[in-house]
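Fold it.
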Amino acid sequence: MSHRHKVTALSKLMAYILRHRPDEFGMVLDEDGYVSLKELQQAITEEPGWSYVRRSHIMEAVLTSDRERFEVKDERIRAAYGHSLPQAIRYEPGSPPPALYHGTRRKAYTHILQHGLNPMGRQYVHLATSPELAVRIGRRRDPQPVLLEIQAQRASDEGIIFYQANPLIYLTEHIPPDYISGPPISKVLPDKKQTEKRPLEKREEPPLERELPGSVLLNMRMEPLRKKEKGRTWKDSSRKHRRKQRHV
């Protein structure tokens, strides 16, 4: 496939995602129909045969489109026309299924169990209707995300408001920890065996004995008076040879 055909195929895929089925790719359009360029690029690279796509490829498809299919603004992108979804998106409260799922980063797991799920830079927490889709979305932030199960229906009955963004994704502003379940922390964050360093034992020296008048004490810590004789070296032999030469 030539480069031109690759750009055309990418443009058609982008149009399908942004116009019709963002939910198939784990994405939610904002109220104006935009998604972030980074999120779109990550979703495309997950598809077989599209792993090479980078931001530059997406921008090339945007700029070379003869029909001006896309609009880019503040690192966000949307389809300019042809939506099967309404252009101005307003999410209405809805009743969620008994369980929803969320894939999160491993290092955030402990905090989530204590404080619950928060949007973390987004307007809403995104919850998937299937574990597979939740894991797929979670891999965009962690190669091995932690799968959380949300007791959505019980949370809804107790006052938590859910919005259905599309057939596969629900939104909410916050999920308290009481409605969240996941794997044991020991499996997610196994304890690293740390070898304890033993403190060095201080060698106690015997106390100095008090010297009494007329007595002689041996100090066992005194250095020997005579230095240990060194062995003969090549320098000694050389000096001896020079002395013999002078007397010849």
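DSSP finds eight helices and nine strands in the chain.
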